[in-house]
């Protein structure tokens, strides 16, 4: 009888263990709502969460309290900046100096706070990706003391910070070490399996070997099945995509839009850069397009960068309506006027500028309702005589949208494309019908999103 009870007990323990863990994983898996489906890459509207603009402490709870407002914008994926414990040794208080890959910094809350946030996002139909820092760690990360061979060293045997940078608060990891690679993948798996996140935005991805990303992404996706994961590389290396990333950064386009808006470059530069960024990209892969993010806002606000609120909105429309891949940086929607130093808490008044917030909401609504704007469908570009108005037609099946953006601070004229001229069209921002003639005059920084259905 004792032997039978012992056998039964062992059977239950083993069964419970297998129910709690995925094959190849030592992490307890949590249930993810069967009703939640991660958006397709083409449909992603990403919102970057910098916890340090939400609250000086317990900021994950503060983000949770604002989820309805974020969802109301039309967002369907949250990218949360690093929430891990921050290094103290040689510190700059940067969230990208990670002291422990499997914990949450007390400043931001707890792992349970993050679980609650992820669960609430899923209930609202929003995915969550975490910022992942694979290139380096804090100097007081336990790895450094336990496994100094996991780090890059100079000719005298001293561990170094990342070469070619001024990131003196972090130690460079050595990707020649297979054990370190395995530990890194294990740490990433923890957040997918035990917290239920939907992927990662990978910091300085181009500085990490491509074959590591191939190994990591393959492992993560196999472990997460049948769930899908969204993988975003902060980089522009084309090999990001062959490694398994779904998206990477449109750095060239960000430079181009600034050149057009503030440097008087001709508007056709945007078309040329867009074509170059997508010419060798396989279908279903996308470039993340943005007018600001935490790095850019750390220098100055998009309103100042582009020359005023209307200029910043013209830049946003030209950037996001040309080829999809939309990103909103949290605070952008309320027109925060100053730089945001993400190394410290910066209070944002979320009730400021409700008219601007409503404009972003309506733009995202139009974007979400018209698949032609966010797909790899046909893009037809039309030149005006002065090359000061972006004029493109986005077409996918029966969905046609004409996008016009005056990128100058002066009134501009343009000939309406023949297939749109002398016929009625619907202004998608207002719902009003307008009659297009052969030419149209646009106010400084005015934009139009038109449908002829």
Overview of the structural elements:
The protein has 14 helices and 18 strands. It has 453 residues and is α/β, with parallel strands linked by helices. Strand 15 and strand 16 form a beta hairpin. The radius of gyration is 24 Å and the shape is elongated. The N terminus is likely disordered.
Residues in helix, %:
25-40%
Q: Let me know the largest β-sheet.
A: 8 strands, parallel
Share of residues in strands: 15-25%
Average pLDDT level: 92
Characterize the overall form: elongated
Derived structural class: alpha/beta
Rg (C-alpha, Å)? 24 Å
Our count of helices gives 14
- Please give the alpha-carbon distance between the first and last residues: 78 Å
- pLDDT < 50 stretches: 1-24
Total number of beta strands: 18
Widest sheet: strand order? 9-8-7-6-3-2-1-10
Which helices and strands appear, and what pairs or packs with what?
Blueprint: H1 2-20, E1 45-49, H2 59-65, H3 67-72, E2 77-80, H4 111-123, E3 127-132, E4 136-138, H5 142-146, E5 170-172, H6 178-195, E6 199-202, H7 210-224, E7 230-233, H8 239-242, E8 247-249, H9 251-262, H10 268-278, E9 286-288, H11 294-297, H12 302-306, H13 309-320, E10 326-329, H14 354-369, E11 378-382, E12 389-396, E13 399-406, E14 412-415, E15 423-427, E16 433-436, E17 439-442, E18 447-451
Parallel strand pairs: 1-2, 1-10, 2-3, 3-6, 6-7, 7-8, 8-9
Antiparallel strand pairs: 4-5, 11-12, 12-13, 13-18, 14-17, 15-16, 15-18
Helix pairs in contact: 2-4, 6-7, 9-10, 9-13
